[in-house]
Structures are given as structure tokens and as C-alpha cells.
Amino acid sequence: MRFALPLSLIAAAVLSGCASVAVNDNFSEVQRFAREQTGSEVRWLRSDTEREAVGSEVDRLLAQPLQMEDAVRIALGYSPGFQVLLAEAATASADATQSGRIANPVFSFEHLYRSGGGERDLDIGRVLSVSLLDLLLLPARLERAEYRQQQTRLQASSALLNTVTEVRQAWIDAVAARQVARYREDVAMATGTSAELARRMQATGNFSRLQRAREQALAAESAAALIRARQNATAAREALVRRLGLTPVQATALNLPERLPELPKAPMDEGAAGKTLLEERLDLRIARADLERTAKDLGLTRVTSVVNGLHVSGVSNSETGKPTQRGFEVELPLPLFDFGDASRAGGEARYLAAFNRTVNVARNASSHVRTAYDAYRSAYDLARHYRDEIVPLRRNIVEESVLQYNGMLIGVFDLLAEARAQVTSSVQAIEAEGDFWRAEAALKASLLGQPIAPLTLQSGASPAEAGGGH
Q1: CA gap 384, 23 in Å, rounded
Q2: Domains of the chain by range and CATH?
Q3: pTM to 2 decimals?
Q4: Closest CA to 137 of 327, 302, 319, 254
């Protein structure tokens, strides 16, 4: 017997779409977001040939001091960690496509014998069934699947933005820690020279044991600070290596700039930061997509909680010596024990949670931006204060101290103490600049809807390290 495929099934197959097309469309959207918001290209490496080609490009970038945007470029096009995010986004996209499809038709075949009286009868039954309820609800399922695709795209963009922010901050940490370690070496050298001079002066009877002990204590504290600075520099460098997903050979080749970028001439205007449209924030768009999907699920729940199955079957039965039976069969579950009230109550509760979550995100958005901008502006003011006030003052003090030392108005320990204070202020200036660049990365992320934990400004060096101790 031949069964004609119903037109409704053909339409359902067409409307269900292709999963690979949806995956590629979502990836293209993530690529567009990356180009517009970060200026970098996203690459999804799906073969060894692609990975080898990108690896060679990474080697070329590592042949020179790695700049911040090049680090972002490597992370988005090479890091295995980010490749995991892209693959997970593709998985979510395929799942969303699958959720919009109806179950395949079911074909049943019976082949039965009946023996008796020396005769043998044969019964053959053929049934082709399809869920009529799935067909009726197909437009709603497709619409809900599209909401899930939209949510997947937004979540992938949010993960990309989080990756970019983390890479930028890791690069800042690595460069700043390396720069601080270099200045800590100068402090340790100055305090070591002072301690050695104190030892010699005590040996000649020109210094007391207390005075020598003070200088030795400063040298010991500076040596401890140098050890911590070198360890911090190594840890920060390795954190950047992990963010970029470099191989051991590439990690060895990684070369960082000597210092952080110069501060901008002026900070970002608060009005410009406040003009961010709430509709464009990723966190709010994700919450709204979740609300729309939950609302669509609630609509389906109200229907399927009462009638959760309706199957129509075409039947063809053949029996030996009898005409073939043809007809149809309808299967409908009866709501005798489960009336669907629990499903409806759960759906309504999920909708209320999604609604209030969206309201909460919208109300907190401006506060996140204000907090991020305040941290950004405070970090800029502090870094500029060190650059324009504290560091030049310390430099002038050292220059005047040299003149006084040459005129025999102060001793060598006074001069060394001022030199230590100058180097310490330079270290604090580096820390302040690092805070600024971290705050800028956090502000950019917050403006796009990826709030970052508020920045805590560095407290600076200890009084003993910054002071003279002479």
C-alpha cells in the first residue's frame, strides 16, 4: 500500500529550517558585534589547517612587543577557551532549531498468523501516525525557537565582551606588574647601598647600632617587596598566557611592552557615557529575550497542560480471504488525573520571575554605568595627580637634595632616602595608571551591558618604604 505524504508534513519540514544555517547566521552576528564594538575579528577554527594558519599569525604577532589590541585579536581568533564558547553557542543554536521541529511520523507494521483446522490465515496491519497537536502548534514552536536563537546570539555576544574585558585587564596587569618589578629593583638597590654604607660607618665608629639596624631593616623590606613584585609579574604574565591560550613555546616568546600606554589628554565625558541607550545594553536585551521566550512558553503551557497529545493515524489492515480494511484512528489522552493546574501555575511563576528580572536589570543599568564611570574618573584623576604633581615634586626634591649634598648641607643617607621616596612614588604612579586602564576596560564593558566588579584603588607603598628612615 502507498501512503501519500500530507502537505502539512511537507510544510512542516520546510518551516523547520536547517540547523547549520542558523548556526552560521548566529556566528555572523557575533562577528559583526566584535567588529563594531572591539575592532577585532572573531575566528571559529574548525579544522587543523585553520588552526595552523592562525598559529603562524600568532607567532608573527609575538615576534614584537604585544600590544593590548593584538592580545584581544589573539584571544578572539586563537584561544581554545574562546573556541569553547563559540562551540557552546553553536550547540545552543542547534538545540534551539531542534526545539522548533515536530516529532517524525511513526510507521507501525503488524504481521500476524492464525492457524487452525489445517488452515493458516495471515493478518497484516499498517499504521502511519502523526501528532496533529504538534502540527497545529508548529507556528508557535517556531516562534519560540526564534526567541531562543535570539537569546543565544545575545549570550554569545555577552561572552565575547567578557572575554575581551578579561584579556584587556590581564594585559594591563602583566605590563604594570613587570614595570613595578623593575622599579622595585631600583628601590632594593638603593636601600642595599644605604645598608652597606651604614655597616661601614658603624665599623669606623661613625654610626650607632640603631642607625645601622634601621637601614638594614629598610633594605630587608625592600628585598621582600622585590620578591613579591617579581612573583606578581610572573603570575600576571602567566594569567595573560592562559587568557590567550598560548603554547609553551609561544609563552616563552611572549614579549610585553616596557610600560603602560600614556594617559589620555582628557577623560571620557560623563554625558557621553550617560547617553548609552538602555535598549542596546546586552544584559537588558538578554533579559527581554528571556521574558519573550517565557511568555511564549506560558502560552503553550496553557494549551498543552490540558491536551498534551493528539495523534491521527492512517490504518490499512489486510486479512487472508477478506477485503482490505482502510481508515483512520484518533488518539486523545483524557485529563482525568492530571488537569494541568501545576504546569500552568509553574509557567505563570516562571513568567513573573522573568518579568521582574527584566525590570530589575533595567533599573540597575544606569547605576552600574554611574559606578563604573565614577571608578574610571577617580582612577584617571589619581593617575594624573601622580603624573603631574607627586612624581615631579619627588624629582625636584631629589635634584635639590643633590645640590645640598654637594654643598655638604645634608648627609648621604638623606640623599638616599629622597632617592628611595622618588622611586616609590614612581611605583605608585604605575599602580595608579594600571588602575585607570582597568577602570576604562570595565567602563566600556558596563556601557555595553556587561557590569564588572567595582575597582578598588591601590593604597600605595608603606610609610617605611616611602620615607627615609635615616
Answers
A1: 47
A2: 7-466 (1.20.1600.10)
A3: 0.77
A4: 302
